[in-house]
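2 proteins. here.
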Amino acid sequence: MRLLLIRHGETDHNAERLALGRRDVPLNERGRLQAQALAAALAGRHEIDAIYASPLQRALATAQPLDEALGLEVEVEPGLIEMDIGEVEGLDFTHVRERFPDFIRVWLSDDLAGAVMPGGESLQQVQDRVWAAIESIWERHPDGSVAVVTHNFVILTLLCRVLGLPLANFRTLRHDLAAISVVELTPERQTVLALNDTCHLAGEGLAGGAWRGRG
């Protein structure tokens, strides 16, 4: 299966550099334009057999123009929802550091995989549920090309899994808003074919995203 990993377009929370997990905020105007540019590029470059999306509206709204361009119905996959960041939701990094110093100390270490966000999930929990969702999609489309519209931590933890990297290495990866990464999954191996592609945004002046740790 060829898997196109697509991060949703920009929201006001992204633009304001606020932590964004499961709060169901909409795309802003820039995000809607990014979604249109994404659909135009993918409709011309890739054969896509199915589209799956997180249940959050910013992911669904990013998927909708692609749905319309390809004539495919977006299928909601709950396992693709963003990390539950609990009490960190809506805060900037300065306030997170002030309110949760013990958590931040672990989060910035190499032992962060099991560190649970205050009132939320750990990266290990995210990776486990996301991989289960991808395996389910893979069973349905073993030889297909599938677009998945989802979120930052979902994509980064999945890429760590595919690349065989410890979760602490998510910091060495970047996936911008409305960017595309492409992964090929076969029974023999898992291969990253493209990473953080934003070429479809550059000509429109829509490239460039918020700090990568936010939704």
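next one coming up
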Amino acid sequence: MSRKVLAYHVCFATYGFWLPNDPRGSNSTFVGAKHLRPFGPATKVHDRRSHAHDPHDAALRAAAKRALRYPPVEFNGVQARAVGRGFSRAVERTGCSIHACAVMPAHVHLVIARHRYDVEQLVRQLKADATRQLIAENLHPLAEFADPGAAPPTCWGRGCRKIFCFTAAHVADEIGYVRRNPTRSGLPEQTWSFVTPYPTP
């Protein structure tokens, strides 16, 4: 009998943070950008653990980032709060429940309850609303690269990494991980008005 997913821990990156051919591995199966192909093929991994601290060719990773069309995006505190306001709009629009959120300089962690939308669709809407909020507040990190009358280049990386939570205990563990993420990186603890407690039996 198949188990029911209760929630998802999703992580998605800003532009340039984690490339499809990152030597530590990636979620990608191909390298779409021609200017990144000289740095190797996609490095798809098939497990769910974090590879952030794996030994790797740091020089190769740095060279690939220098070949990007735009500077890698890192949100400052003001931009991170705007991203949160965008997420709040997405929550209002979709009716999804977010049980934990950490907006880091170069990536985002969320624990999202199972929803009628696929989690990938929810992530696309969260990214879109955050982008709209950054533009509305004149805070988009790549605004200077926009063509006249056009939107800026995306400040987000492609897709997301997701962990499926099948038990309440697993959901609680992932919520704890997300809550601790900022302080483990030396940043202040984050509190967001759109985050709702996970219901306990």
